[in-house]
Structure formats: C-alpha cells, structure tokens
Amino acid sequence: MLGLPVDEKHKQCKSKKTHLIVAGGLIGLISLWYLSTTFFTGVIFSKVPKNSNLCPLFDPIAPESFHKDNSTVLSILFDETYRNKSIDNLSGAIQIDTQISDDLVDVPEAPQFWAKFEKFHEYLEHTFPLVYEKLEIERINTYGLLYRWNGSSSDLKPVLLMAHQDTVPVQKDTISDWSYPPFSGHYDGDFIYGRGAADCKNVVIAILETLELLISQDYQPQRSILVAFGFDEESSGYIGASKIAQHLEDTLGPDSLYAIIDEGDGLKVDDLTKTIVAVPGTGEKGYIDIEVELSTPGGHSSIPPDHTSIGIMSQLAYLIEKDPYDPILTEKNPTLSYYQCLAAHDPKKNIDSKFKKTILKAAFNHHANKKLIKYITQNRFTRYLIGTSQALDIIKGGEKSNALPEVTRLLVNHRVAIESTNDEIKRHFIKRVIKVATKHHIAVKAFGVYVHGKPNNPAGEFVITESGGLPPAPPTPLNDKVWQYLSGVTRHVFEDLVFPDLDYPIVTSPAIMTGNTDTRHYWNLTRNIFRYSPLFSNGLMNNNIHSVDEKLKFDNHLQLHAFFYEYLQAIDTKAADN
Ligand SMILES: *[C@@H]1O[C@H](CO)[C@@H](O)[C@H](O)[C@H]1NC(C)=O
Ligand SMILES: *[C@@H]1O[C@H](CO)[C@@H](O)[C@H](O)[C@H]1NC(C)=O
Ligand SMILES: *[C@@H]1O[C@H](CO)[C@@H](O)[C@H](O)[C@H]1NC(C)=O
Ligand SMILES: *[C@@H]1O[C@H](CO)[C@@H](O)[C@H](O)[C@H]1NC(C)=O
Ligand SMILES: *[C@@H]1O[C@H](CO)[C@@H](O)[C@H](O)[C@H]1NC(C)=O
Ligand SMILES: [Zn+2]
Which residues form the active site (predicted)? Predict the structure, then answer.
C-alpha cells in the first residue's frame, strides 16, 4: 500500500540509523546524533503554521448593485409574493416525471424513452419566457440544454452554472411510504416534497429564476454566462453532460472557463467548531469497478472437487475483505484542508487546543497525521473521505442444485483515494487473485493479458475486467481569486442577509465529494470546479436525496437563488480573475 510521505522519511531515518551503527566510528555517531535530534525536534518542536497562510479568511464580497439598492435580493429571500411564485416554479418542475434508470440507450436509438424530457423543456420555456427570448439556447443530443448569455467583454472567461434535469426513479413499492405523492410537488408551508426537490430540480429552477430576474432588470453582463443542464447525471452523464462538455471544448477550447458551479454540498454546522461552515466540493475520489470471473470444469455434484468455483471465489472474497486499504491523508486531499480551515479559525474556540495543534501539524508531522487519521476513521461517515474503499457488491454463481458451478462472478466497487491511482488498485487486485489462483493451479488473465498461467489451463481460469473507471478528479485550486470570490459572496449572502445576527465569520473550507457529479466530463474546461449548492440545510440528513420523502426547506431554495443572483454580479469584473 501507499505510504504517507511522512512515513517514508521516518523509515529512511531508521534504516540510516541501523546502517551507521553497524559501520561504527565517530562520524557515524555524530551523524546518528544529528539525525535523531532533527527527527525528534521535528516531532516535538515543529512549528504550528500561521493560520492566515493555511486558510485565509476573505472579507465578504457584495456586488455593486447591492450597495446601490439591496431590495431585489431581500425580496428573493423574504418577499411572500415572490416566494409564492417560486414555490409554483419548483413545484411544477417536480411534477414532470424525468426519472431515469441505469442501462440507458442513447437518444437516437430510444427516442420514445427520452420523449418525456420534451415536456420538461416546454415547462421551462413557458415558465421562463425572458430567458428563452433573450439567451441563445442549444439542444445538445436533443435533450441537453446549453444556454449562453454573451457578455460585453471577451477578455473575461465565461462562468458556467450546471445542474441536471433527470432524477433517480421512485421505487414502486415505496410509493405508499411517501407523505405526499412523489410527483405532486406538494408544499406544506415549510418544505417542498417530491422526487428532484433536492437533487436537483431546485438547482435548475434557482439558476433560471436568477437569469429571468436579471434579464427583467435589463442587466447586461460583461462576463459571459453559460448554463448547462445534462439529462442522465444519475447514470454517469455519458449521454447528456459528456456531449455538452465535448461541444464546449470544441467551440471554446480547453481551460476556457472562469469557474464551474455544479450541484453539491452547501453550508452546515460543523461538529468540531459548532459553527456554520461552507463546504464547496473541490475534489472527488476516483472510481473503478473490477469484476472477476472464475471458470472451472463442470460436472455432477455427487463427485465434487474439494473446492468449486464458488468456494474458490469465496476464498478470494474473504482475502479482499481481510485486507482493506489503509487510510491516507496528505495535502492532496481536501479533507486535510477542511480540518485545517476549521482549526485555523475555530471562530467559537470550541476545538480542544491540543487537538487543534494536532490538526495544524498533520500535514508534515507523522505522529499528528496518525492521530488525525484515527479521529477521522472513527466515524463511519467520514472514514472513507480518506483512503480507498472497496465493497463486494455483486456475486453470482451456480445454476442447479445437482451441477457444479462452472462460472462464478464477483464485482468489487472501489472509490479510489485522491493519493492513489486506478492502476495501483488494479495491480493490488491482481496480486490477491494470483495468491488464490496459485493455491488452486488456476490461470489468471487480467485486463486482457495472462499474468499467471496460460490459456486453456485444465483447472480453470480467472478473468479480471474493469468498468466505470474514473481517476480521482484534479484538485480545484485554493486561495486564488476565484476561491476568494466564492467564499466572499458566501459570507455576504449568509452573514449579511440570511443570518444577520451571527457573531462570527463563516469559514469556507474545501471538501471532498463522496459521489461524482456531471463535472467529471468538464475537467478540461477549467481547474476551478466547485460542487456547491450554497444553502443551509443543517440536520436534514441530505434532504432524503434518492429516498422516500425527498424534500427541501423552501427557505433553502431561496438562499440558493439569492446566492446565484449575488454571485453572478459580483464576479462580473476583471478584479475577480486570477
Ligand atoms: C438595505 O438597504 C437599506 C437602505 O439603504 C438599509 O437601511 C438596510 O440596512 C440594508 N439592508 C441590508 C441587509 O444590508
Ligand atoms: C402565498 O400563498 C399562501 C398559500 O397559498 C397564501 O396564504 C398567501 O396569502 C400568499 N401570499 C401572497 C402575498 O400572495
Ligand atoms: C417563475 O419565476 C419567475 C421569476 O420569479 C416568475 O416571473 C414566473 O412568473 C414564475 N412562474 C410561475 C409559473 O410561477
Ligand atoms: C456569442 O458568443 C459566441 C462565442 O463567441 C458566438 O459564437 C455567438 O455568435 C455570440 N452570439 C451573439 C448573439 O453575439
Ligand atoms: C481532455 O483532454 C485530453 C488531452 O487533450 C483528452 O485526451 C481527453 O479526452 C479530454 N477529456 C475529455 C473528457 O474530453
Ligand atoms: Zn444530482
């Protein structure tokens, strides 16, 4: 397994020590003394880095329009007439079924399946007449939507806001468990219910409401505004987002966008500091499914071998689970920056001072690193923010009670650590298969190549294949102008408007997204990718996303809308560029 960089240094020190003792002599002893003092002072006296360098806290940033007249953004958040209209907008969008499943067929081959998105498009056009009159709209692969509002200044890179039109399906046998029918878009005076309410028709509607409002005010941006809505995000985005991204790359070229904001986490109360923090997703783990198929000779089950293919596969399964990946936490992982930001600011001074030092030293001090890892891995929900996870998700084998199973299959899903690579996971997987194969004289063909034994091996063979491979996402740069504006506008919206009585600053901390979003297809277009839906939905356990009673507090919807309204105007200046 991968060692931590701090680990490596530690090991080197030790092996040098041993070597020098064997060599003996004065020089050796002096070197030994030198090495050990640097090592131990390193542990005990290493300096805690300055907070301001580690995680700068930027001032709130409001657009100029706000200083002239703050009434629009206040009415988004607090005007009842506006709220009522917005409830209708989102409710109507939820009422149109855009469920998709896996195993999708592309639009030209299955036009009937996708036709329901036509209704959704008609709804958007009817609800946002100004957007449809004023902006250029392209339909990519029929149902992908790309809106373009050209800015007056071509020096400024366009900003891209994203969301997806599709939702996960409602499972038929759960319909009776819903408080309100999943496609009713019911509003109970506080929450709006239904499939897509929080993932993520709310983002689609908040973006379009923002544009509709800006157009109605004769706003003219300097920086071009692009909006992209895919339609198969819940099935990896190969039919929708991937084609929109390709189109953008073909027309605008690589690295041509200012920033991308797609669905993601928002604001929450953090457990350690007990304060509200904003957590844009600045990284994603990698993903790879590895399937292994074992074929062995069949036969009658009255004269079985000692181990059938099911038994041998079980040995492999056992071996895999017995050997989980070690957690690893380096500066590459936004999770470390997350804890560092909390520790650096800790606005209410709630973090134990010893633990705070541990966090601040965890990037370069082996002992501190181990302690922080221990803390993070104690919690089931945070454990896999660091390190690679593996899950035995599918196993199939056997046909009949009196026949030996000729073929058994096992699929293992991996979410790959930021510090690792999919190739490393594949190599490790092969090693474990070979270990089992050797015991049973079975050949192994891994990713098209025989790595153990030969074809037509009499005892059978393992065939290892991969699918769904995606490397860890390139990390979003931190502490640049784009980051400054994102966190500055967040502070403005949530400190000045949403929580005016807050007596501490809202810290924006980078974070890792546990899932993947459509941004996976957009990596070439900018490094500044944020999976971020700034709304404060604390204590709601993710609004039951993908589950029964998916819902969203309507105040949250308006917060997101207000954020987009202020953000688009705030970044409409050269000063927001790096
Ligand atoms: C909005 O503007 C009014 C008038 O200038 C001012 O009194 C009020 O404090 C402002 N509200 C906020 C939240 O900034
Ligand atoms: C908003 O809708 C609610 C519920 O339908 C209604 O009671 C209220 O009067 C409406 N408010 C305004 C200002 O239209
Ligand atoms: C949707 O929201 C926009 C912007 O607030 C508003 O102009 C429009 O009337 C709303 N549409 C409906 C159907 O409520
Ligand atoms: C907007 O900008 C794009 C890209 O530069 C260009 O192709 C398009 O013609 C422009 N549209 C208008 C209406 O100027
Ligand atoms: C991104 O650019 C690289 C190098 O030009 C290319 O190989 C790759 O296919 C591009 N990725 C996507 C998702 O288009
Ligand atoms: Zn989503």
Answer: 166, 233
Q: Is the CB of 164 under 6 A from ligand 5?
A: no
- Sketch the domain layout of the chain as residue ranges: 64-284+474-576, 286-470
Highest CATH level, class, for 286-470: alpha beta
Vertex 265 angle, CA 262 and 268, to 5°: 150
Q: How far is CA 468 from CA 166, 261, 291, 448, in A?
A: 20, 24, 11, 17
Determine if ligand 4 sits within 6 Å of the CB of residue 421. Answer: no
Q: What is the CATH number of domain 64-284+474-576?
A: 3.40.630.10
> If DSSP states are collapsed to H, E and C, what string results for 424-476?
HHHHHHHHHHHHHHHHHCCEEEECCEEEECCCCCCCCEEEEEEEEEECCCCCC
**pLDDT above 50: residue 10:** no
Asked if residue 262 belongs to a known ligand binding site, the reply is: yes
When pLDDT is averaged across residues 451-456 and rounded to a whole number, the result is 97
Query: Which residue puts its alpha carbon closest to atom 12 of ligand 4?
Result: 150
φ, ψ dihedrals at 409, nearest 5°: -125, 145
pLDDT in tens, 349-408: 999 999 999 999 999 999 999 999 999 999 988 999 999 999 999 999 999 999 999 999
> Which ligand number lies closest to the CA of residue 521?
5
pLDDT in tens, 81-92: 999 999 999 999
Residues paired with 403 in a beta bridge? 300
Q: Does the N-terminal peptide bond of residue 200 adopt cis geometry, omega within 30 degrees of 0? A: yes
- In CATH terms, are 64-284+474-576 and 286-470 the same topology? no
Identify the active-site residue in 209, 232, 233, 461. Answer: 233
Q: Which pLDDT band holds residue 542 (cuts at 50, 70, 90)?
A: low
Mean pLDDT of the residues in the chain:
91
Cα 218 to ligand 1 centre (Å): 22
Find out whether 294 and 313 touch, Cβ atoms under 8 Å.
yes
- Which residues are within 8 A (CB) of 421 and not within 5 positions of it... i.e. 6 or more apart? 286, 471, 472
Q: Is 166 tagged catalytic? A: yes
Give the max Cα distance, the chain.
88
Q: Tell me how far apart the alpha carbons of residues 567 and 569 are, in angstroms, rounded to a whole number.
A: 5
Contact, 286 vs 556, CB < 8 A?
Answer: no
